[in-house]
Structure formats: C-alpha cells, structure tokens
Amino acid sequence: MLYIKCPYCGLRAQKEFSYGGDATVKRPNINEEVSSEDWDNFVYMRKSPRGKHIELWQHIAGCRQWIKVQRDTATHEIFQTAKVTEEIR
Amino acid sequence: MSQPFRLNKEGLINRNKKIYFTFNGKKLFGYEGDTIASALIANGIHLVGRSFKYHRPRGFFGAGVEEPNAKLQVEFNGHSEPNVNATEMELVEGLSATSQNCWPSVNFDVGAINNFLKMFFPAGFYYKTFMWPKSFWYKIYEPFIRKAAGLGVASIEKDKERYEHKFEYCDLLVTGSGPSGLASAYAAAKNGAKVILAEDKPRFGGTLLTDDVSIDNLSGKDWAEKIITELKSMPNVTVKNRSQVFGYYDHNMLVMFERVSDHLEKKSKFTPRQRLWYIRAKETILSTGSIERPIVFGNNDTPGIFLSAAAKEYMKVYGVLVGKKPLIFTNNDSAYETALEFKKNNVEPIILDTREEHSSELIDEAKSKGIDIRFSHGVIVANGYKKVKSAKIGKLNKDKNSFEKIETVDCDCICVSGFWTPSVHLASQSGNKLKYEEKIDAFIPDKKKQHETSVGAANGSFTLEESLKHGFENGSNLSAKITETKTEISIPNVNEKKYGAHDKFWCMPLPKNENPKRFVDFQNDVSVSDIEIALREGYRSIEHVKRYTTLGMATDQGRTSNLNGLQLVSNIENKIVPEVGHTTFRPPFTPITIGTIVGREVGMEYMPTRKTPMHEWHEKNNAVFVDAGAWKRPRYYKEGNETLFEASKREAKNVRENVGICDVTTLGKIDIKGPDAAEFLNRVYTNAWMKLPIGKARYGLMLREDGIVMDDGTTTRISENHYHMTTTTAQAANVLSHLEYYLQIVWPELNVNVVSTTEQWAGAAIAGPKSRDMLSKLYPDLDVSNEALPFMGYKEAEFFGVPSRIFRISFSGELAYEINVKSDHGMFMWEKMMEVGKEFGNQPYGTEALSTLRIEMGHVAGPELDGRTIPSDVSLNGLVSKKKDFIGKNSLGREAFNVESRQKIVGLIPIDRKSSIPEGSHIVQDQNAKLPNPKLGHVSSSCWSVENNNPFSLAIMKDGKNMIGKKFFAVSPLKNKSIEVEVISSHYVDPEGKRVRS
After folding, report:
1. Is a pLDDT exceeding 90 seen at residue B196?
2. What is the distance in angstroms between the Cα of A42 and the nearest Cα belonging to chain B?
3. Residue B754: predicted pLDDT
4. Is A51 part of any domain?
5. What pLDDT sits at residue B581?
6. Is residue A59, in this structure, part of any structural domain at all?
C-alpha cells in the first residue's frame, strides 16, 4: 500500500485516496474553439509511461483536495507531491 | 504412560502440565510448550504423512517454518484446518491431528503404488501423461487429478472466530528476535525510538536458545531473557511473539500475522483468534536468521532423517531425542554441536564429515569427547521404508565423485547439515536485488531498495559476535537518525566456538548400478532426476524449471530445496549459480488463514450499512429492503401474503389514483455556494442555468467529457448565491468528486464551494393526484395552490414547527412534492405524513413501485444512463444547449454520435399484452435466426404498467426513432424466453406531462 504525502494533511495510507489520472493533461478552455484533434487528445489520448509520471489523486477520505503526485509507475516510488496549484518539475 | 524419547530434564517445556491430544485416533500426551511435532517424536512417532506424488512415507524434517513434510489436518478449538505445520503448531488440550494425503491410513496407503510406477510420473508428467486420448480428459483424467491434488481438506463450516486488523506505525520494526534482532531492538529502544520486535516462534531468542554460547557471562538463553524483559518494560517498545512478518510491500509497509489465541485452551469472548498488523515502519531490521539446508542423498526423505539443527532444537527446547542411534552427516562444523548435544545426553553419534581430516575448535572438542568422526564420508542411501533402519555410507575419493569404501551402519536417525541459507524473503520482497555470496554458497541482500537493513545470519554473518555487533550498530544508527538521540551501548563480551570452513558439497554421488530417489524438494517430490529431465527437455530459465518440475512451490516455498535445486541446475548447465539466478520470493512467507486476511469485514461488517432516519418505521411496517449501494431502501411494504409483484402494483396504483409517500433520503444532495455558482452550474450541466430565479428548481443533465451522460437531477436556487443540487443515489459520491475536480483543478478562478449534505437532510416525496390536498393539510398556513407553488417551485416553511424545504418536483410523473427536513426530524415528518395522509388514502411506496411509475412515464434512470448513452439516446437532447459551452459538449459533435441510425430509447409492449419482458433481453428481428443473431437493442427497464394494466418496457434500440410501430422479438436465453413485442413511444403514460403541472 502506497504512502502518500497529502500537502494538506501529511503522510496518509493509499486507502484514503482515489486515483485521478495524468495530471499534465490540460482541459481546453471553456467557451473557446478547439479542434477535433486537440479535443480527442484531451479526452482520450494518454501516455502510459514506465517511470516517472505526474498524476492526480484525490484525498477522498481526508481533506477532499485533489493533489499532484509524481510517482514511478514501475517501482511506485513517490518523488514529490504538491497542491494542484503548484508545479512539479 | 511414558514417553520413550523424552529426556529427563532438558528443554524449555513445562513438565508440570500435561496436554492430551490424539494423532490418527490414538490418544497421546505432551507438555505445555510442545509442538505437535515434538510431542509425537517424544512418543516415538515419526511416520506422519505421505508425499504428494509418490505417496512415500514421510516424517519430520525440521523444527519450524522450514518443515516440508509434516502437514497435518488438525482439529482444535472448534476448527478443522488442513496443511497445519506440525513443527509450528503448539499443543492445545483436546487437539486432534490426522495425516493427510493417504488412504486408508498413513501406515497402509494405497496411493503408495505410485512409488512403484514412478517411471510414469517424471517431471512434467501432467503435461505428458494425460494428453491422449483427448476424450479421456473430462471423464477420467480430470477427476483423477482433482482427487489426487491438494493435501488436506478445507472446512465447509462457517468460521465463527473473530479476526482483527490493526494498523501500526513505528520508527523501527525488527523481524526476528535472534541475537542480531535483540541487539538492534535494544539499541534503538535505548535511543528512544518507537520499536516493534516481532518473533514468529512462541519463545524469544532464536538461536540463542539452542547454541552453546555465553554473552557477558550469561548463557545465550538467559541473556535473551534479560534483554526481552528490559524491552518489555520500556513504553516505546512493543514486543510480540507468535507474530510473523510475512510480507514486505511498497513504501515500507510490512504485514504481520499474529497468532493470538490458537495456543490457548480458553480465551475471553472478544479475544480474536488471529490478528493482521499493517505496520508502516520508518526503518526495518530484517533479522530473520537462516535455515539449514540438507545434503542430497539416496532415499533422503525416509522418516527419521532430520536437519541437524532441528535435532538439536528438539533436544534443547523440547527435551526430545529424534533418535538414539544417530548418524550426523555434514559438510560443516555446525552439526558437531548437534553431535555434542547428543553426547551430553548419553547418546553415541557417528559423524560423517565430507571434508578431509582437519581440525577446528568444534572438531577437537568432539574428538576429545570420544565421538566417532569419519572424515571424507557421507551417506549414500538410507535404508528403511517407514523409518530409517540403517544407512549405506561411503568413503569419498579425493574428487568426491566416487567411493573408496562402502559399508552399511545401523542407525535410527540421520541428522544432515549442508550449511546455512540466509532467509532473504523479506529483503527480496522489498525489491532488493539479491547477490550471490560465494563464501556461503547462498544469496544475501544487496543494495538497499527501501528502508530494509538485513543483519546477522539473514545477511550471511554466521558468528554471534558479528551478529550482535551488526545488530547494535544498525539498531543504534538507524534509530538515531530518527530520534536524534544516541545512547552509547558497550557491545557485550561473547564466548562462542569458532567454526572452520564448510565444504562446498551438496549432493552425494551414487555408486554404479544404484538408482534410489534423491529428493531435492520433499514437499513436491522433486528429485535430482526430475530436474535433469527438465533441463534435458530444454527448460533453461530457473522460473521455467520451477514450473515444470514444481521445485520450490507450495506451502514451504522451497525453503530447504531452492539452493540445492540451483546448484544442481548450475552444475548440469555448467554455469555458476548467480548466472542461473533465483526464483521470485513472494508473500506470505508461510501460509496464513483466509480469516485473517478478511478480518472483521464479514457479514454485516462487510460494508457499512446506511439507513435513513425513517428506517425503523419501514422495518416496523413490513418493508422488504433492497440494497442501493450501502443504503437500505424499502423495496415494497408487504401487506398480508402479498408478493413483490402484487405489493408494488398496489403501491404504484395508489400513487396514480390517490397519494403515496416515498423515502427519498438516499438521493445525493450537494450544497453549492458562492458568487460564481450559477456560472459553475452552467458549465457543469448541459442546459442553461444563468437565469434560474431564486425559489425555482430546474432539471439538469450532466455529461462526462466524452459526451456520455453522467448523472441527472434537480438543482434549486435557494438564494442569490446558494444552490441545492440533487444527484442519483448511486452517483452521489462520483458527482461530488467530479465537481471538486473542476473547481480545484480546471476552473480554480470560480468562487464556488461544494459540500455533500446527503446525510443532513431527510427527504420524503408526496406523489399522486391528491398530493396537493395532503400538502395543504401538512402546511395549513401556506398557500400551496398551483399559482403560488407551481411545478418546479420551491418554498421554505415550518412543518409542524420544524423548518422544512418544499420542492415541487416529480419523478413519478404525478403531481408531486419533495419535503426535506433536518435528518433528526425525519421520523417526525414521516409519521406526521402517515397520520395526516390517512384521509387521502396515502400509502407508503417502495423503490419497486417508484420504478414502475417512472418507467411507464418514460423517465430515464440508471439502467438507461448506463455509461453508454448520450443525451439524444435517451430523448433528453432538448436539455442540451446549443448556445453555451459545457462539460462534454465538444464530444457531442463526434461522428458516431450523429449517425442517422443512432440508438434511441423506445417503449416496448408485448403483443399478447400479458408476457412480462425480462430486463436485459435482446431485441432481434428473427427469433429463430442462426447464432450470432444480430442484436438491434436491449431491454433496459421493465414494469407492469398500472395505468394500462399490461407489461411495458423501456429499451435502447438501434435507429430507435424509426422503429415505432414495428414488431420484433425480445429474447432472453438466460430466462429461456422469447416474446413478440411492438415498439411504441417511451412515454407510455401522460406523454404531454400534464399531470406534473396540474
């Protein structure tokens, strides 16, 4: 079971979180024209990298905040976690 | 009753307490502190089981987790458990153990014929033998294999015991209480760290209990006791025996299996049987020790053959002799300690040492005690079928591949030692790549992967001095980093015997023309020749060899066989062991009960039960409940002998004719506040929300970004910046997360707050033509006329002194209202409604009637919004705004969503107006067509229309809008039904929606 550091609550067991996919995907702006290709990329196309991956998790049984987690998909190592408003490099 | 193999005083058992048990029906006794194995050996019983494949007689081989043979069916404390390890299970009064894998008895086993047919059971026999003729598989081979497979019998009784889970956090977890573990725990505890020390066995101390050593002038056992006593007195230390850390998972999470009360004759009511600990440790000391490995020789599986350390443990811990005429067969010095222990107990051993004559501290001591030592000697083959009677021994030549002399010596046991294998399971599970240590012919942990530090024998250091030193140092350093306190500890003076070098010798050659079975893996009956066959047949990867031969599989996980197997493979392949590699170590280290894994999550505790505030009323009024997620909802209220069908028809009809009330507390409720709330709703829902007046509700539809309908519900504007959203019962949690996602990540600039209020409000729907009359009685001071409170209107008013919210919304399609009061007042509201509603013919209705009402109205719900439908599929495209953007809008333009023949919701009625159409039926043109019969759609919801008194269903059908008036078949192979149906509009009742506005 992963041990995830919520930027608001501290280290908590994976049980308290739910996974939310790739955090680097940006939704096209509302009320703006978007090409079909860009839209399809946003809705459907996801990379499935082996290695470092920045992803979203929600602290669903805690503060309910969505957070960013940089995790190695092969080893589960977590390098960094951040608020969604913060950058992970 | 005497015990022929019990020593007079040795051992740590309590001789003042006899414990009676039975083995294969025979009544025996042991002492408190015995295992089943030690008690049986004390009684001279060695034949305890039959081997898996050949049904060869098998006895005890080890004294703990390493035991491959002695798995028994054990009944105790009301349990019947298969595959219980006799060397680990402690005796408890009334225990009854029986042998497995034998019929009719362990002494006379018909299956032993396999032993004489062994040419038919080579490696991979099940891949070869049962291949032809093909027709034999189902009737002959498969039932045969099924019967032969497995060892014991699982109980089919309900497990009445209590199992618990526990979550724990610590600075340092120490796994094993041998010298290095004790030292680590002690040093860390002195630094003020929070320490958990786990010991698998009932007694702490590990090898300190059996080795002839002294520490600071105390015997090993006394020193261990002193340290344990001190650790137990420290508030920052948890010391646990009978607790095995069996798995090392991600992020330093270790799982421990505690046997809380299996050894107790009586226990208090709430004492669990076993407990599973999830331990998150900052640092972990792996002091799991090592396991002796055997030397392979002929018939080395005969009962009476033991690991030499096990023989010593039986003497030192249990006061039991494994034999009175022992042969000690060794390639190293440690077996000499066993020989000396025998000698001390007036038993004369013969030592066969594969090494050439040489000298060491232990050899010299054995010599001085007059023990018969024969160098360059080994056991070729053990004689005896159900027990060792003698052994053919040989003097090895210089190259150790043939014999200079062969003779037979009498013996009643053979104690074998092929040196030591560190228990690296936990280290390997942590992700540590192991490395091969030439010096000890075994794998040890390499560079740290997580926070695991292996010490002592688990790390390949086999001297006490080194183990203690590593233990103290690592325990101190690791904990000091956490506590930032360092207490100096002087490393104690150690007195131990120095070992000489071991012999890299692991398998006895065979003289010409002799071919006894030489087993590598006892539990799976894998012999040297099986591995040779596998390699000859082209298997190269050690993982493939494992699977083909079953080497190292099953409950003992190859603890005594893996390295010998690897040596064999590397010899044949002419490789070195590290090139061959090792198989994967998987948790659990030893078998654990399913009950422990499940813990308390059984029966009512399997998941939480959510009850509405009116639940008790429903119960008292014969409600039959249905699960809606974790909620319990009344499905119908049973009157007399009514069936579900009759009751739901009555309830639905009463709503259509009079008035009914329904508990709608379970609907998801989300409070939305903030100056940008309207803008947010406008983006979340497909329809327009900017102009919703205060005091009005609106039906809304929300999509996922891929255009699929996510949920529907009404949202009401309570005040300027305050909205009350409802969701379906099932989607409540998902919708909240969905809203939070957009507010926190996508549009953080919107000033809006959302919070779930599902639990805060109790809700009741009042539906039916007489609902307004009833409402006016409930709110005598309120104008509830159609003008004052129109469809989709909202009012706040006192309900008999209790604040309440009135929504004029309808799911049933009738004139209807929903009243919400604070949860605490739910029961009051409900009872008041029942009282006031009497004169209008009010009856409660359950979810079944609710479904009937919504289906015949053509209102969609979960079965239609099934994650595959877009708004137009369910005739809700009227709610999709063309003027504004919203979540999922761009996807609605996708080509597949706009083809002419796109699926659409329709209504179905059976031609005979009688046959109910099973939900899930497929709609086909020709019921007799060849399979696969092209599917034109499926039936999503079915009911008995109370309005028209015939069955009616909703279906999602390809090109649905052009199918009205056509006839098809609804086929359900599952129910073996085929019903001719006519397609009609999905709005079967009141298609203009006049009633809700009346």
Report:
1. yes
2. 9
3. 98
4. yes
5. 86
6. yes
Distance from CA of A80 to the nearest CA of B (A): 14
Q: How far is CA B95 from CA B88, B89, B594, in A?
A: 14, 10, 21
Tokens 């809606």 belong to B628
Interval B651-677: pLDDT, tens = 999 999 999 999 999 999 999 999 999
Residue A18 falls inside a structural domain: yes
Alpha-carbon distance of B660 to B813, in angstroms, equals: 13
Smallest CA–CA distance from B255 into chain A, residue = A1
A40 inside domain? yes
The answer to whether the CB atoms of A36 and B893 lie below 8 A apart is yes
Q: What is the span of the domain harbouring residue A52?
A: 3-83
CA distances from B398 to A75, B108, B329, B508, B764 (A): 49, 43, 18, 14, 94
* Mean of pLDDT values over B682-690: 97
Residue B580: half-sphere exposure toward Cβ, Cα within 13 Å: 28
Residue A8 with chain B: CB contacts under 8 Å: none
Best of A60, A66, A81, A83 to disrupt the B interface (most B CBs within 10 Å) is: A66
pLDDT at B146 over 70: no
Q: Measured between CA atoms, how close is B862 to chain A, in angstroms?
A: 23
A81 touches chain B (CB under 8 A): no
Nearest to B658 by CA among B780, B839, B834: B839
CATH of the domain at A63: 3.30.2270.10
Query: What is the H or E stretch that residue A44 is in?
Result: none
In whole angstroms, give the CA distance from residue B535 to residue B539. 5
Interface-testing mutation among A8, A64, A68, with chain B (most B C-beta atoms within 10 A): A64
Give per-residue burial for B174-212: e unless 16+ CB within 10 Å, then b: bbbbbbbbbbbbbbbbbbbbbbbbbbbbebbbbbbbbbb
Domains delineated in chain B = 14-125 (3.10.20.440), 163-290+422-495 (3.50.50.60), 294-418 (3.50.50.60), 607-666+761-842 (3.30.1360.120), 667-757 (3.30.70.1400), 854-884+899-997 (2.40.30.110)
For residues B143 and B151, give the distance between their C-alpha atoms in angstroms, rounded to a whole number. 16
pLDDT tens string B547-572:
888 888 888 888 999 999 999 999 88
What residues in A contact B251, CB-CB < 8 Å?
A: 1-3, 76, 78
DSSP-assigned beta bridge partners for residue B716 = B697, B724
Per the DSSP assignment, residues forming a β-bridge with A19 are A57
B57 beta partners: B50
B748: which chain A residues are within 8 Å (Cβ-Cβ)? 84-85
Q: In the predicted model, what is the mean pLDDT of residues B297-317?
A: 97
Closest residue by Cα to residue B794 from B650, B680, B698: B698
Q: Into how many domains does chain A fold?
A: 1
Mean pLDDT, chain B, as a whole number? 94
Whether the complex's predicted ipTM is more than 0.95 is answered with yes
Which residue type is seen at B599? G
